[in-house]
Amino acid sequence: MRIGIVCYPTFGGSGVLATELGKALAQKGHLVHFITYQQPVRLNGFIPNIFYHEVQVPTYPLFDYPPYETALASTMVDVIKNNNLDLLHVHYAIPHASAAYMAKQILKKEGKNIPVITTLHGTDITLVGRDKTYAPVVTFSINESDAITAVSQNLREETFKHFDIEKEIEVIVNFVDVSRFSRKPIDAFKKVIAPNGERILLHASNFRKIKRVQDVVKIFAAVNKEIPSKLLFVGDGPERSTAEDLARELGVCDEIRFVGKQEQMEDILVIADLFLLTSEYESFGLAALEAMAAGVPVVSTNAGGLGEINIPGVTGYMSEVGDVENMSKQSLSILRDEETLKAFKERAAAHAKKFDIQNIVPLYEKLYEQFL
Ligand code: GMT
After folding, report:
1. 125 lines ligand 1 (CB under 6 A)
2. Atom of ligand 1 nearest to the CA of 152
3. Candidates 21, 151, 283: which one to mutate for ligand 1, based on the most atoms within 8 Å of Cβ?
4. Which of 34, 120, 304, 312 is deepest in the core (most CB within 10 A)?
5. How far apart are CA 274 and CA 291, in angstroms?
6. pLDDT at position 45
7. pLDDT score recorded for residue 261
8. pLDDT at 263 over 90
């Protein structure tokens, strides 16, 4: 098949998932064309069967806001025509679904039917999309998609709850390449972070308000009182300095490392003992799934779709949003002795296999085939 993939090229879960999907499809022999404004972060190196088309948004003094959506729709038309694409798969509704609708209409006039599949990822529905400034366009363009998928059961339900959706939404859960994440830790790296064999806790996100990173710091401070430990913060974003200030206030700043945005998550996750995800909402929590695949148990909130991946007492624990005390207790109970930690690690890794790339990518292929 000749497939166009549109996504955000950044470190966010939707872009990561879309890129990994494209790479997996290319490996299976499909021709995959990425259409984005920047090279997606996980699209590094030369991969046969993968093509990258950058959306250029020319500026003009009149444009206080350069019209990205118009440039995207035009690039879609161009790429679809010149490469004779069979379908377009857009990840994250805003503005990808509406740009795809526009491209579809243009091509229709020229006698070409291009099926559009929209995958909903989370904040496009639960946060941004619901805003009345976007909602009518989001609702319309989702409904105009030939197929709609959501990355969790929870997101499917949220979408039906908040939007007037006239079509079925198929749940195709997110996936992880287990073979890539099940690695041996690099001892030298582990020694740098935890020179005296301290437990390593880790949080990775875009540090937006919704992630409640202050709760991560508070949980770590409570754990650190009881057991020698270090905290790795991976990623960056608006709440980073708030987290740093709080860490200083709580006297744990020296035990925390902010390592910024990282591409080789598999090398970092594998040295961790516990992944903390304190979000107010997660449609799925891909970062937590990647942690599990690396054999890292997860202490998280029970928000959104997290209950669909984190099994209390098996792969980690869950708490109400903001219940720092409980999440601290849960973290301590996992980290306190070697045997318990080992068992949680093994079970987390085993559970992640259910979401292996090999099991999920064929579901997308099956969906695509319906439109050929
Ligand atoms: O978590 C974020 O804020 C980034 C966001 C994105 O759109 O890139 O992630 C969303 O999509 C991921 C991949 O499907 C999910 O794993 C995340 O749970 C979801 N984030 C939210 O729902 C807040």
Report:
1. no
2. 14
3. 283
4. 120
5. 8
6. 84
7. 93
8. no
Q: Which residues pair with 87 in a beta bridge?
A: 3
Q: 17 CB less than 6 Å from ligand 1? A: yes
Q: Which residues on neighbouring strands pair with residue 51, listed in sequence order?
A: 33
Per-residue model confidence as pLDDT tens digits over 270-293? 999 999 999 999 999 999 999 999
Atom of ligand 1 nearest to the CA of 17: 13
**272, HSE (Cβ side, Cα atoms, 13 Å):** 33
* Full set of structural domains in the chain with CATH: 2-175+356-369 (3.40.50.2000), 178-355 (3.40.50.2000)
User: Among 89, 123, 209, which is best to mutate for testing ligand 1, by the most ligand atoms less than 8 A from CB?
Assistant: 123
Q: Is the CB of 92 under 6 A from ligand 1?
A: yes
Question: How is 92-125 classified by DSSP, letter by letter?
Answer: SHHHHHHHHHHHHHHHHHTT----EEEEE-SHHH
330 Cβ inside 6 Å of ligand 1: no
What average pLDDT is seen over the chain?
96
Question: What's the rounded Cα separation, in Å, for the pair 260 and 267?
Answer: 14
Which residue's structure tokens are 């390592």?
259
Residue 257 is given by DSSP the state E
The conformation of residue 312, written as its DSSP 8-state character, comes to B
CA 176 – ligand 1 centroid, Å: 14
What is the chain's length?
A: 372
Q: Count the Cβ atoms, other than its own, within 10 Å of residue 81.
A: 15
